Amino acid sequence: MGEMMRKLNSTYARYHARTRSRHGYLFQDRYKSIATQDQNYIEEIVRYIHLNPVRAGICAGLAQLDRYPWCGHAAIMGNARNNFQDTKTVLRRFGKTDAEARERYRQYLEEGTASSSDTVIRTIRDSNRGRESVFHTGCWVIGDKEFVQKVLASDKEKRIRLATYKREHVDLDGIAEKVASAAGVQVTDILTRSRLTKGAAARQAFAYLCRKELGYPVVEIGRYLGISGPAASICIKNGREVVRKLHLENTIKLS
């Protein structure tokens, strides 16, 4: 899924740049993913996403949404064709034939204009706001108590470590201080935008450790460093090698 989304995003970004004579990043961050328990939650998520144009007032209602070109709903209804979109998987959840499935699917969306799952809406909106930090697990797992516990248990060791960090108040300032000390630079060097100093390498290591060890959102790391989300993503990517070369793997481990 990750590779497919990466290819879709990069292909559209190149198309957008070429057709509009634009340069630079189009998407600020990677796509969001949420673990869901069963098809009921998945259907709720599909409905939430496809009703966004209606909630935003872009489409006056479902009749207009049925032919709205910038949403997957029109393809599911058979009014548009997106070669990259798998409409069959959604349709088979609502009926054995396309005609039956589309009728039931559209009725399901119509019911959602009046009410929808508060849990699903809250989770997706939290994730969209960048609250997908492992400190806030409710925004990336949807399901009953047993399912959530099962998902969290699959990463138990990391979560225990993260709980310790949180209890000991290890925040971005604290990480910056630890990385600066281990790399032999000042915190101000990490916060200064430069490619030619040891501070630049420490900056990359800082970004990598914040993301991979503590699960801070990319946008939050970028905000702290005074750079954009895409620039922070580059720092994180390059930081892995810096951490290895400078032996900073245990920089933020607590005694």
Could you characterize what this model shows?
By secondary structure, this protein is mainly α. It has helices at about 1-20, 40-50, 50-55, 60-65, 75, 85-90, 100-110, 120-130, 145-155, 155-165, 170-185, 185-190, 200-210, 220-225, 230-245, and strands at about 35, 140. A two-stranded parallel ribbon has the order 1-2. It is elongated and about 65 Å long.
Keywords:
two-stranded parallel sheet; mainly alpha; single chain; 255 residues; 2% strand; Chromosomal Replication Initiator Protein Dnaa, Chain: A
Topology of this structure?
Blueprint: H1 2-20, E1 35-36, H2 39-50, H3 52-55, H4 62-65, H5 73-76, H6 87-91, H7 98-112, H8 118-128, E2 141-142, H9 145-153, H10 156-167, H11 172-183, H12 187-191, H13 198-212, H14 218-225, H15 229-245
Parallel strand pairs: 1-2
Helix pairs in contact: 11-13, 13-14, 13-15, 14-15
